[in-house]
Amino acid sequence: MTKLGTTDLDVSRLNLGGNVFGWSADEAASHAVLDAFTEAGGNFVDTADVYSSWAPGHSGGESETVLGSWLAKRGRRDDVVIATKVGMLEGLDNQRADTVEKAVEGSLRRLGVDRIDLYYAHRDDPETPLVETLAAYDRLVKAGKIRHAAASNFSGDRLREAAAIAEREGFAGFVALQPKYNLVERGEYERDLAPALTELGLPSLPYSSLASGFLSGKYRPGVEVESVRAAGASRYLDERGLAVLAALDEVAGARGVSQSAVALAWLAAQPTVAAPIASARTVEQLEQLLPALTLDLTAEEVARLSAASDVV
């Protein structure tokens, strides 16, 4: 376990993504993945109210509902750190105070809990004053509806601005950031976000940690993969992407683990990262991720992977 920044949350080094729950993984498959994750020592689950509104016939909240049904059936609420988000679901797609305060009630109901451990502003909302947004999250903390507030998809400057407002107003400010960051998409994070996080003393919990599955190693030239993410992953199949795969193959082979686990361990080794997020539709897919719970790469292995990917 690792302490999440300055919070009282002890979290596993792998943050299980719930975006597939109720979408590409039905309730039974999702419950099986959650069972296997917690049995292996994982305790950190990430979801959002907008999951999976993009799927035909879905309106959002499906992932939270599936997670809530698992919590109710297994009685594991006290064993799991739950993170969810507000700000991207149609009709609740901003960071106004009334939106945040309405959305949290829906999330609490679907999850079947009386408090959310980590509640994210899913994306920045330049149209709403940050002081209004932060005041809303502060009220939720004081009311006991959330333990901590966090930011997702914020720039470094906006994180700094939020921190300054929270300090000035005495608000419970953002305690973490959820950004896009992985071995083949490093530039924006390392140039803009990492310096801000270091300055503010905040940890990150990266999403898209496996670059739409590309870093699992299953996408290769001439190989067709049946997946809803195949098109996204295939865009990395260039000279640089192939160099990254070669480095992953080398380290994974030496360690006897999957390429996915190595890619996640590389992220976990970055000084500003607390727990990378990755999802699995099946227990078999999850098994490829689980070594990341404990896998520590050597400095040489981290350097080998970093050199292969460069920063662009």
From TrEMBL:
GO terms for cellular component: cytosol. PANTHER family: NADH-SPECIFIC METHYLGLYOXAL REDUCTASE-RELATED, OXIDOREDUCTASE-RELATED. Residues 14-308 form the NADP-dependent oxidoreductase domain. It comes from the Bacteria. Keywords: Oxidoreductase. GO terms for molecular function: oxidoreductase activity. Pfam families: Aldo_ket_red. Gene3D superfamilies: NADP-dependent oxidoreductase domain. SUPFAM superfamilies: NAD(P)-linked oxidoreductase. This is Aldo/keto reductase. InterPro entries: AKR_Detox_Biosynth, NAD(P)_OxRdtase_dom_sf, NADP_OxRdtase_dom.
